[in-house]
Amino acid sequence: MLLCLVHLHLNGLGLSIAQLDLALSGVIPMHTHPGASELPLVVQGSVITAFISSVNKFYLKKLKRGDLMVFPQGLLHFQINSKGRKAISFASFCSPNPGLQITDFVLFANNLHSTLAEKATFLDTATVKKLKVVLGATS
């Protein structure tokens, strides 16, 4: 669970920074920033980070205090707290408006008809309906 997200725009500098506080076993789910690359720096705890390249290769790294990783613009990535205590990191973005698309919400928390979601994701009817209910979809 993500405890806290503070996002600061640095007016006129073309940058933004977010503080990410991850609870025990906390997860920042698979997502992308269509408008910027991300550079997370862990300042407390330990975080498992990964992104998927445009040729579907996973790049996985366990970050400890002082470590950082680059998530290239537009690529899917996630973060998981890997220790038994709260983890804190700061994510810098090369844009004041990096955007955010959380994959599960993009696919299932919308008004896309379930039959189209099934075809687009290769999931069965029951799974799509369950995900839509859990994520608050309108159809």
From TrEMBL:
<comment type="similarity">
    <text>Belongs to the germin family.</text>
</comment>
<dbReference type="GO" id="GO:0048046">
    <property type="term" value="C:apoplast"/>
</dbReference>
<feature type="binding site">
    <location>
        <position position="77"/>
    </location>
    <ligand>
        <name>Mn(2+)</name>
    </ligand>
</feature>
<protein>
    <recommendedName>
        <fullName>Germin-like protein</fullName>
    </recommendedName>
</protein>
<dbReference type="InterPro" id="IPR014710">
    <property type="entry name" value="RmlC-like_jellyroll"/>
</dbReference>
<keyword id="KW-1015">Disulfide bond</keyword>
<dbReference type="InterPro" id="IPR011051">
    <property type="entry name" value="RmlC_Cupin_sf"/>
</dbReference>
<keyword id="KW-0052">Apoplast</keyword>
<feature type="binding site">
    <location>
        <position position="33"/>
    </location>
    <ligand>
        <name>oxalate</name>
    </ligand>
</feature>
<feature type="signal peptide">
    <location>
        <begin position="1"/>
        <end position="18"/>
    </location>
</feature>
<keyword id="KW-0964">Secreted</keyword>
<feature type="binding site">
    <location>
        <position position="38"/>
    </location>
    <ligand>
        <name>oxalate</name>
    </ligand>
</feature>
<dbReference type="Pfam" id="PF00190">
    <property type="entry name" value="Cupin_1"/>
</dbReference>
<keyword id="KW-0479">Metal-binding</keyword>
<feature type="binding site">
    <location>
        <position position="31"/>
    </location>
    <ligand>
        <name>Mn(2+)</name>
    </ligand>
</feature>
<dbReference type="GO" id="GO:0030145">
    <property type="term" value="F:manganese ion binding"/>
</dbReference>
<dbReference type="InterPro" id="IPR019780">
    <property type="entry name" value="Germin_Mn-BS"/>
</dbReference>
<feature type="domain" description="Cupin type-1">
    <location>
        <begin position="6"/>
        <end position="129"/>
    </location>
</feature>
<keyword id="KW-0464">Manganese</keyword>
<keyword id="KW-0732">Signal</keyword>
<feature type="binding site">
    <location>
        <position position="38"/>
    </location>
    <ligand>
        <name>Mn(2+)</name>
    </ligand>
</feature>
<feature type="binding site">
    <location>
        <position position="33"/>
    </location>
    <ligand>
        <name>Mn(2+)</name>
    </ligand>
</feature>
<dbReference type="InterPro" id="IPR001929">
    <property type="entry name" value="Germin"/>
</dbReference>
<dbReference type="InterPro" id="IPR006045">
    <property type="entry name" value="Cupin_1"/>
</dbReference>
